[in-house]
Amino acid sequence: MATIFYERDANTNALKGKTIAVLGYGSQGHAQAQNLRDSGCKVIVGLEPTRPSAAQARADGMVVVAPDEAAKRAEWIHVLTPDETQSAVYEQYIKPYLHPGKILGFSHGFSIHFKTIVPPDDVDVVMIAPKGPGHLVRRVYSEGRGVPSLIAIQQDASKRAHEYALAYAHGIGATRAGVLQTTFKEETESDLFGEQSVLCGGLTSLIKKGFETLVEAGYAPEIAYFECLHEVKLIVDLIYEGGLGRMRYSISNTAEYGDLTRGERVVGDETRAAMKKILADIQSGDFAREWIAENENGCKNFNALREKQKQHPIEIVGAQLRSMMSWLPKEAKKSAEPPQQDTKRVVNA
Q1: Which of 49, 206, 219, 299 has its CA 20 to 30 Å from the CA of residue 193?
Q2: Do 214 and 207 contact (CB within 8 A), yes or no?
Q3: At 217, is the secondary structure helix, strand, or coil?
């Protein structure tokens, strides 16, 4: 079982007098920077001044400076740019100013675990990873609560890295809910596996295959959309609130019997074998090397796959049906373009 830390475990004075530089102001960046500021920490945001996110950060009352200036000024440098850009950000803006006694922080372990960033031995390297999207991290903090987070220590040059990391977790509100001890390896590999096999890759493929099966059998695409995509939220919300048991308690007996007798026919041993291969590719570094090479080659395959998925019938019929749903935000009713943000995924999730 994981060790869990709470507010009573944090030394809130550990970061007193230290400047924290948050590099990136996307989903996680805006939330963590504002929460730290509101907790009394001295925070600066490192962004190129011409970026739209820089204007937003200034509008939010943050002190914004160029990334290299932020790294130069700060004792704690927290990297919240996308995985694929972190190495370049590190080499250009951080490395020249990463002196003994500084703290290098992350909210995802990819760059450290797969060694696209190799910090010197004389700095602390830590991770505080909220288990929720940035907007939730900010909103829940503003309500006086917190989002559970993970904490990991890769290097402890100061012999106080855990204390500093826990103080940072306190600053973003995570200790209000609970902070679970992990490692960079465990967080990175389990996170990639969850995204690829269940949360994103597995779920979207399951949805599309269900939709295609009904349409090929002659059912209306609109009906297939409702049954195989739209209602996923109803089930996921129940699972989110109380696990599989709450979901099964809330659905009909007919649905529960179908779940218990048919589910493993669809997602069974063959799927688990494929999941094991996915995990092995993550553990060996094969996926990381593939993703790094994809970015080095201009993301040609990635962009082609994106365009192909936009043309799937489920996206076309979905956009039409969502226009009927008055409760959805306008920007959510159509199939969204990939977000151009300064930070990673919403499910660190």
Answers
A1: 299
A2: no
A3: coil
- CA–CA separation, 249 and 125 (whole Å): 44
pTM: 0.92
- The helix/strand count (H/E) of the chain reads as 17, 9
User: What is the C-alpha separation between 141 and 171, in angstroms, rounded?
Assistant: 10
Query: pLDDT tens digits, residue range 116-131?
Result: 999 999 999 999 999 9
Rounded Cα–Cα distance for residues 77 and 125 (Å): 10
- The secondary structure of residue 175, as a DSSP letter, is G
Q: Which of 134, 169, 153, 148 lies closest to 344, judged by CA?
A: 134
61: tokens are 């009352």
Q: What is the DSSP string of 4-51?
A: EE-GGG--TTTTTT-EEEEE--SHHHHHHHHHHHHTT-EEEEE--TTS
Mean pLDDT of 123-147: 98
The residue assigned the tokens 């929460």 is 35
Query: Is 108 annotated in the active site?
Result: yes
Q: Can you read off the two tokens belonging to residue 28?
A: 């996680």
Q: Tell me the chain's radius of gyration from C-alpha atoms.
A: 22
Q: Which two tokens stand for residue 121?
A: 């031995």
Which pLDDT score, from 0 to 100, does residue 335 have? 61
> What is the amino acid identity at position 111?
S
The pLDDT confidence band at residue 337, using thresholds 50, 70 and 90, is: low
Return the DSSP state at 106.
E
The C-alpha atoms of residue 79 and residue 107 are separated, in whole angstroms, by 7
- 111 and 63 in contact (C-beta within 8 Å)? no
Helix crossing, 27-38 with 161-171: angle to 10°? 90
The DSSP-derived string for 318-339 is HHHHHTT-TTS-HHHHSPPPPP
Residue among 30, 108, 162, 170 flagged as catalytic:
108
